[in-house]
Amino acid sequence: MGSFHGVLLVGLFFLGMLVSSLCQDEDSDNFSAVYIVTLREAPAVHYDAELRRSSINGVRHGGASERLNIHKPRFRNISRTDRRYSSYIARVHDSLLRRVFRGEKYLKLYSYHYLINGFAVFVTQDQVDKLSRRREVANVVLDFSVRTATTHTPRFLGLPQGAWVQGGGYESAGEGVVIGFIDTGIDPTHSSFDDHTSERPYPVPAHFSGICEVTPDFPSGSCNRKLIAARHFASSAITRGVFNSSQDYASPFDGEGHGTHTASIAAGNHGIRVVVAGHHFGNASGMAPRSHIAVYKALYKSFGGFAADVVAAIDQAAQDGVDIISLSITPNRRPPGIATFFNPIDMALLSAVKAGIFVVQAAGNTGPSPKSMSSFSPWIFTVGSSSHDRNYSNSIMLGNNVTITGVGLAPGTDTMYTLISATHALNNGTTVSDDMYVGECQDSSNFNWDLVRGNLLICSYSIRFVLGISTIHKSLETAKNLSAIGVVFTMDAFVIGFQLNPTPMKLPGIIIPSPEDSKVLLKYYNLSLERDIMTKRITKFGALATICGGLKANYSTSAPKIMYYSARGPDPEDNFLDDADIMKPNLVAPGNSIWAAWSSVGQDSIEFQGEHFAMMSGTSMAAPHVAGLAALVRQKFPNFSPSAIASALSTTASLYDRNGGPIMAQRAYAFPDQNQSPATPFDMGSGFVNATAALNPGLIFDTSYDNYMSFLCGINGSAPVVLNYTGESCWTYNSTINGGDLNLPSITIAKLNRSRTVLRTVRNVAANETYSVGWSAPFGVSLKVSPLHFSIASGETQVLSVFVNATSNSTTASYGRIGLFGHLGHVVNIPLSVIVKITYNTTANG
């Protein structure tokens, strides 16, 4: 890392010198600026468009065993998507600039070769005039500023400069791909799902046949070319008598907010203004903003959902022809009496995968305990939750110059104001003995308006806020009714170490999450009180404070980190098999503090009631990030099987945070940032999703439906269950395999007894390339991979033999990695997890 930073600093120094000299050489009438120059020759995307359209419209995605046919148009014997072509175009641009400027100073910033054929260059106005007169030049435009487009995670994931660029920009990212959401429905009135946000109309995906259900809550016209299907499934709930028509909508309409939120994360429109509590927090975008949304509502506010309804929704989605299914739902517990994988939801999803549908599921929010995973089948892509680099914090500065940090999406105060505790502002008819929770400020009638007016009101934040009995919303209403300047929430000592999400506040406000910091504020407050010597009554409130606003985001280089609540692998214990030799989760994605669309009547969070956007956290938010990114992969590789998409996302995942250090995992629910250590594959799977790299994976691991069936048939006593779910007999599969032998982009061995050889097969989906193999062995294991070097042509396969030998016993998993390094720059990452359990045979002497 040191040498990289040294080169970077030297490069920045010379860049600064060149820019400085360009500016200093020009007079005030001929200053330098950045211009975007486009050339008349068509860019690469024009040559690929016809091929891409024929692939998407003419080929229905086949099963996992379908061979990949990667065809590339040629131009002067160089593919338009080949790196050599981009180098060729860059040389063409450089040649033009040298001819035009003939020794003059200029600085080329970029060469564009795929979306536009052109470049960005730092030049003077005189030089612009020279460029404009060239016959090769089509247009010269002065560079202009743009605003952030964000739930912020598109920028954190590098989409504007990376994955979106490769697909034609956000205007076409995910176009033609249909994502099906099994969730709480959708609010069709939200601008994130409008089909008129772009000058270019949405196309109708020819392979999709879903319908839009019409009800009084979901009237005709709710669907459009963006939201192309919506249905609801509640027969099981109605039959059980738990469907509450006063709370639950018997329609696709989202009465909770969760489904609207997840759909917009994956596929919401680009550039939608996020306004909450009257404050603007940037612009929102889904990961694949041009993809289509199909909604299959199977969860409800008052009771959750039932497997029968979920399976019906999955079945309908598959019939309709969705390309991707996003499940931000997990079972409450493992179905009793059957093996882990043989539950109706997972088996329905296996059939969906057979039909060529990529399935994404949230890992669950039951972490950080080991084996807490709620999504465990190898044909499902399981996503854990990480942080991203944006966070919000505010602070309060006390009159004694002590500053305390806190949370709260709130404006600040313009000067110092008097602090007054709620318990010291009670009206004559209220006492703490009458209501021990009166300090939580839930009812303005308990307080003296004259005392509170114009001051900062101190309220207590207790466990009742965590449980939803008391709310910030009600406290803010109380403060507003009493004409308070703002609200300060001090943390009750019994609420230990909770990681609070930022909460929107229209008034200046702050929540102090630390009980220790809260004691500091209250000590200052109490020492500043003046009391009558005889009566002990307060005669003056002397404590002063000012709140520094929390509306502006901060950015951290330590992101991402694995959130404490994100469920951990490996597979859960099972009565039929101890462990399945399958790594879970598959990877992690942003899931913490995510801005996304919210239903206009959403009840899931009282703090966001009536708002059009909400900030939510959980693996529910991480899964649709990957569903949207998978749409970009599907768009680029329409013939990829579901396992090929999974492989592309997995093998390219990042192992490092933005500071270059290892990704950390929070290990405790209380004080999570004080209890963290480097993440393992059972915390983060293959790593943190890398959207741009996933679009250029180099090699992929493909696993067929038949392989999954051979795995299921290998579970002792499973044959009758397999027959019941699939209609297929295990006799038709000549051999069975265990989880470690599935052709997955990872290797997990839960019980290594002495030694074992594991085979993996890779397919080249890029240009001809030569790879070298390297590895780091887990503790207690020696490792050998062969071949050490191999050359592989485009479309060809290569078998890798991994020999794992135990050198010492271990009761816990240890971790290693295998890396395949291509000479064209591809890096394929294969995580390895092993528990060594050597058994020794003993015989009696005699």
TrEMBL record:
It is found in: Secreted. Belongs to the peptidase S8 family. Residues 1-23 form the signal peptide. The keyword Secreted applies. GO terms for cellular component: extracellular region. The keyword Hydrolase applies. It holds the Pfam family Inhibitor_I9. SUPFAM superfamilies: Subtilisin-like (SSF52743). Residues 174-666 form the Peptidase S8/S53 domain. InterPro entries: Peptidase_S8/S53_dom, Peptidase_S8/S53_dom_sf, Peptidase_S8_Asp-AS, Peptidase_S8_Ser-AS, Peptidase_S8_subtilisin-rel, Peptidases_S8_3, S8pro/Inhibitor_I9, S8pro/Inhibitor_I9_sf. Keywords: Glycoprotein, Hydrolase, Protease, Secreted, Serine protease, Signal. Residues 34-148 form the Inhibitor I9 domain. This is Peptidase S8/S53 domain-containing protein. GO terms for molecular function: serine-type endopeptidase activity. Residues 741-834 form the Subtilisin-like protease fibronectin type-III domain. The active site is at D183, H258, S620. GO terms for biological process: proteolysis; response to symbiotic bacterium. The lineage of its organism: Eukaryota, Viridiplantae, Streptophyta, Embryophyta, Tracheophyta. Its main location: secreted. Gene3D superfamilies: 2.60.40.2310, 3.50.30.30, Peptidase S8 propeptide/proteinase inhibitor I9, Peptidase S8/S53 domain. It comes from the Eukaryota. Coiled coil: none annotated.
